Amino acid sequence: MPCRLKNRCRPLNQREIALNSKICVEMDSSIGQIALHGDGPEKLFSFDGVYYMDSTAEQIYNDIIYPLVENVIEGYNGTVFAYGQTGSGKTYSMQGDEKIPVQKGIIPRTFEHIFEAISTTENTKFLVHASYLEVDFKGPVPPK
Fold this sequence. Notes:
This protein is an alpha+beta fold and 144 residues long.
C-alpha cells in the first residue's frame, strides 16, 4: 500500500467557541486542497484527501485506516502518523473519546478490528506488535 497524505480538520473546541474563534480554512475535497486564511496572503496546501470538521471518526477509519489494517492482518506492516502543532487535533483523531462510542479514535478502532479478525480466524497464529510514540517539543530543557 503506497504512502498517502490525508488531512482532517477538527471542529472548534469549547475554548475556541467561547472565544468566538473563526474558522480559517476552506477545503475542496474534489482536489484534496486546503486554503488557509489568516494574516497575510492565502496559503494553499495539497493532500491525497481532505476531511472537513463534520467528518466522523467512523468515516475516517473506514476510508483511510480500514484498508491499511486489512493489509496488516494479511502480514504487511502498517503505520499511521499524525502530525501537527499542539491543539491541532492529533489526539482527537488518534484517541478520540472512548466514553462516547461513536467518537472512538483510530487507535481503539484499530485494536478492535485486529483482535476481532484474530478471534474469527482458525488455524492461524498471529504475533501482534504495536507501538505508540508521542514526540512533544515544548522547548529546550534547562541544564541541571
